[in-house]
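Q: Structure for this?
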Amino acid sequence: MIPRALAPGRAGILTASLAPAGTGPVRPCDTRLVKVALLGFGLIGGSIAYALRRNPEDWTITAWSPTGGGPAVARAEELIDEAADSPARAIQGADLIVIAAPPLAALDLIDALAGPLIVEMAPDALVTDVVSTKSAIVARAEAARLRFVGGHPMAGREVGGFDAARPELFSGRPWVIVPASTARYGDRERIEALATACGGVPVAMSAGDHDTAVAAISHLPLVVAAALVESVAGGEGAAARPDWTTAAGLAATGWEGMTRLARGDVAMGAGIAATNAPAIAARLRDLQAVLAAWLVYLDGPTGPDAERIRARFDEARNLLLASDAEAAE
Amino acid sequence: MIPRALAPGRAGILTASLAPAGTGPVRPCDTRLVKVALLGFGLIGGSIAYALRRNPEDWTITAWSPTGGGPAVARAEELIDEAADSPARAIQGADLIVIAAPPLAALDLIDALAGPLIVEMAPDALVTDVVSTKSAIVARAEAARLRFVGGHPMAGREVGGFDAARPELFSGRPWVIVPASTARYGDRERIEALATACGGVPVAMSAGDHDTAVAAISHLPLVVAAALVESVAGGEGAAARPDWTTAAGLAATGWEGMTRLARGDVAMGAGIAATNAPAIAARLRDLQAVLAAWLVYLDGPTGPDAERIRARFDEARNLLLASDAEAAE
């Protein structure tokens, strides 16, 4: 392990941290070398390691994963300082503990950190996470009296795992930050500094607002992609489809694009659905109402209404273009 | 206009056409220079021109479009032999007339070809199309007593128009061929030769089987993409969504992928929906049933059922992987 506290450039950080916010290189908000423990080391955990490693004088990184495979490779590549063989080992002396696991595993880790692992934690250690849902996670941390600020970097790829991790994954992307009631003064800023150091843009939001928003733009699309496959290819929820082979033979880019999310990590999808079920269910009901209206235009007593159908396609397209324009401002 | 009938290489074709099928370079099935008229010159019409131009000794190409813009550019680039200023001019002397227009415009062109334009057509001219739905198109051609073989190359891009046209668009892709009852002996083979010359793989299918299949893998996804936008962003079919701005700010690749089809050509979408409405409506009902089952797992009286949800994501994923494996065989 490289003794980074003694590495050249440390004095420079002390100086840089006195510069006004928003100027100069990105630095963690305190002037110490921050020790980060990553619990979970897939796409997100690995990408955090890559992103922080761009400023090795600011961070030391320890990582643990259930299989140990990713951390071992990362240690051999000197991407991290230590590959820990247990969560207990990983969190020893850590300033920041980042739970970078799927949703249900993250809930278990919160319980473990507030339970058997608490004796291993430094007195002022702060815990955060990167899970796609926030209400259930933050509520669990609060119930466990864990010092916690929830996080959700809005970045992903269609492939998961450490092999897919990239240093630029979070660049310019929102990183939602949701302090728990158990967080202390300055804790939110510590996680904002982590997000910024990773290239992300911190966005403060309540857990409820976050979960409603991501139910719309992330979780509903995930469920719809799976349901589309089931309805066409004949899953549990649908009749057998002997015509699926014919249809699959004609499938082109449209089908591939609309079902790509259904190829993702199954445990992740299930954890997301289970920990944000009410918000997703509400969105699903909204979608069902819209589809019912489409059915009337397609299959009403007077036959298909091409003008109304055109108007609806037009409106959907305009909503997307207006959203593009707003994002570009 | 280059007098291609006199161009070098013509004799070679006469020889090559005597070679056994499946050997040697791809040739149209008769030994004459085939004159193709393209009515409509967007992504598909333009790509057909590019594809045929790879064998200029086999084809002459005339194109017309409502605006005339694409054909003018293509003529200047010598991609086509003539930019016609009217459908009547385009079809004069044509052996093959390819309707490469959106669905509703294609229906009108069928009526025009069987009506006022019939006097301009060569006695043995054959008409085909490239429209995404087949039953309505073929039925219209039969009702009009037009000599017709329907076609549908299963290829597309997310952008339309002549600018998006590419010579390789059809390479290795299925090209569905549906002869009308008004087609004559050998006509199907003439359209198969067109498909093959474009790099496509001819697939014989009934109009009904085609429409059921593409309703699943193409038209249902199109409607779902638009409905997803409406339900989340607040279109005509849904309540106003003041939370849309927040959600849009967090949208990442998943949302973009699931709504890309809703950014496409509105007239095309409306025409597809209007000319294949019963099949799309049937698929939409299947999807509604699947979504209703998801709602039970997400929002049932005993709370979200993570195990069942996981099993459903798993099944959807396995259906896609099994389909990949079958396609790779």
